[in-house]
Amino acid sequence: MTATQDTPTHTGWQKTACILCECNCGIEVQVEDRRLLRIRGDKDHPASQGYTCEKPLRLDRYQNGTPRLTSPLRRRKDGTYEEIDWDTAVSEIAARLTAIRDEHGGDKIFFYGGGGQGNHLGAGYGQSLQAAVGAKYRSNALAQEKTGEMYVDGRLYGGHTKGDFEHAEVVVFIGKNPWQSHSFPRARPVLKEMAADPARTMVVIDPRRSETAAMADIHLQVRPGTDAWCLAALGAVLVQEDLIDHDFVRDHTTGVEAVLAAYVDIDVADFAERCGVPEDLIRTTARRIAAANSVCTYEDLGIQQAPHSTLNSYLNKLLWILTGNFAKKGGMFLHSTFASLTGGGSGGGGGGRRTPVTGARIISGLVPCNSIAEEIDTHHPDRFRAMWIDAVNPAHSLADSESFRRAMRRLDLSVVIDIAMTETAREADYVLPASSQFEKWECTFFNVDFPANVFHLRAPLMEPLDGTLAEPEIYARVIRALDVVDEATLTPLHAAAEAGLAAYADAFFAAVTDDPRIMGIAAHVLHETLGPTLGSARGTAALWGVAQLCAMNQAGPVARAGFTGVGFDPGNQLFERILEGEGVVFTRDDYDNAWDYVRRPDRRFTVEIPELIEHLVGLADQPSTWTTEDFPFVLSAGERRAFTANTIIRDPSWRRRDADGALRISPADAAQLGVATGDRLRVVTERGSAEASVEVTDTLRAGHVSLPNGLGIDHPDGTPGVAPNELTSLHHRDWLAGTPWHKYVPARLEAV
Ligand SMILES: Nc1nc2c(c(=O)[nH]1)N[C@H]1C(S)=C(S)[C@@H](COP(=O)(O)OP(=O)(O)OC[C@H]3O[C@@H](n4cnc5c(=O)[nH]c(N)nc54)[C@H](O)[C@@H]3O)O[C@H]1N2
Ligand SMILES: Nc1nc2c(c(=O)[nH]1)N[C@H]1C(S)=C(S)[C@@H](COP(=O)(O)OP(=O)(O)OC[C@H]3O[C@@H](n4cnc5c(=O)[nH]c(N)nc54)[C@H](O)[C@@H]3O)O[C@H]1N2
Ligand code: SF4
Ligand SMILES: [Mo]
What we know:
This protein is an alpha/beta fold. Helices cover 33% and strands 16% of the residues.
């Protein structure tokens, strides 16, 4: 184990990871007096290999730049807060949870969050609390971006796909700007290599000339919100010009006839016109995709938070499926998982679960974010009565912040776990102070690679700040106060844990066989029984169970990564290896076993999704603009820029550029409105208005303006920029997945 238990005034380089986006690049840090003094990329990290972008170099602003919470807080009637001790907080919260469960049912206690870009270790313990109170509904940020894609993934093959961008001959980025937002390892070097290689082609579909679009060979500069027509036209060219991979389609798919029939009738010229891209360019792009030895695509918020988002995901996936770009170098792949990100099982399809008040579709176990306020702020008898919020800032990140704040104040109980007094914490009944991500063991479950998949458990760099607790300990205290597991269950497990992991594994799984309810609170039971043998790493106990399940469910790939033996041996070895606190390759695959990850008995893609085919066919008669006379501009509310990172870093001095988070606007619109860079404009939408400073840029087309994400957060040094969700509405959302149209907010601009 890494020696980090003491707090030396000066240390050498310690290994950890960046917490600002889902790449979690490995970094090394020198700590002095609790400051992250020097930071560099970790060359030994198997995924990032020494790479970092500019954002983590001043991660000390996360650790030390914002006043930290150092005591549990209880809200007074007048909206101010008083400090209370941990025992009081835990016993009051447990009593109120119990009362709500007894009066209204545990399913009225709603759980939101459980981790951000760098911290998922608490999530397993949060699941134990959900089981302990009988909760049935939960959600997180994925339900305002990825649930449409998850639905399609679930229907097609039951897994999550990613692309081999490093090796692909053609890559297609759809509403994705990886130069700024990354999302795959070493994004910038990979993009540069691609751009420099004349044999490879980069395609970007984006209404804005993003940093990535500026490097691309082909930029399909769609009108905002019209990707469905563009993607449908690309697919139609493949089908109508007979460019599809017939062998692949015959050998690996079912239901393709209905798909082909829908594409055959599409009028490519008309669809090109609708999305504002020259027909020739669409045809050239489709032919290039068809001719390539390997193609991979990446879709992200530009289509996932825009009109037709679920249909867009389907049309994207059909492009690489119809051209046979799966399970080969440079193509798309499904991958192993260390732990499920949603906890809701694989795949979003089917299930048919709905929310209790509005009947919204629940995908991958997640309540659509845009429905949450409506499930609370109502007189419906089944409304949510309590909300548990951990490591997220929904009063800032969910559409229509005002409606969310109002909903929070209607709850009988709200609890927030955070490191700082956030926009959300300020609406809560109780606020519980967490140790920072550098003061405790942490990890993420963003492990999405192939052929080698990496999991990284990080050791703490310093002692917890006084008054704070790590999430595993917070959950343990609350669950103990709920008194859901008796000593008779725990005692034999304590004894087995003392005898070592092998004995513990036998005892634990025997206990689960005896009483299957233990599985629901497994993380808690592990924390209570295996935990004490792990010393200061007690919070990692749940990962033992995760490592066991990972090894059982993916025995071959885990063995190829070097974790071998019989029974519980591979899982025990994997757990011991990850405790060393470095990036660990936990599965190794090859293209021969890539199809094993298709969760279908016949290992084929089920390409026919009737409800989406119906919408594809209907596109010809659908409107393709949603602006109005009152709101003639399209505002993209939440663009990723060099210095945005959701609301993880609250200290504005972290930003080296774009301190105010400028409103970007085209030269033509600026001239029309008589403004120049540095002037101010008022942005008005159906839901709200805000003043922003202007940046005139020819990267945007007339009629399209954009604001960054993660601004407008309170800090003693000021609150620069616009909080984007003061401007967004709950009702602009995808008909199927309920995902918000953050990238397409009808708006008007006024002089100030
Ligand atoms: N720097 C930075 N990186 C981050 C984050 C961060 O906060 N800052 N956050 C992380 C997170 S949580 C996520 S989910 C990812 C998101 O990563 P991205 O999805 O890449 O980020 P965005 O900038 O929100 O949107 C991508 C692009 O969509 C374009 N777009 C807008 N409207 C449309 C449209 O109608 N059609 C198309 N095709 N494109 C459109 C925008 O111009 C933009 O270039 O980034 C991650 N990485
Ligand atoms: N309009 C608009 N809205 C958007 C987007 C957009 O593009 N436009 N993007 C959306 C997307 S893709 C995402 S992912 C979401 C992100 O929004 P959220 O899911 O709400 O997440 P963050 O803003 O990252 O909030 C992370 C919180 O965790 C806290 N925190 C940091 N470290 C710890 C810790 O160790 N323990 C605990 N308990 N808390 C900690 C931080 O202080 C912060 O309050 O925003 C979404 N909202
Ligand atoms: S790419 Fe993401 S994880 Fe890597 S250094 Fe940049 S912000 Fe951090
Ligand atoms: Mo996100």
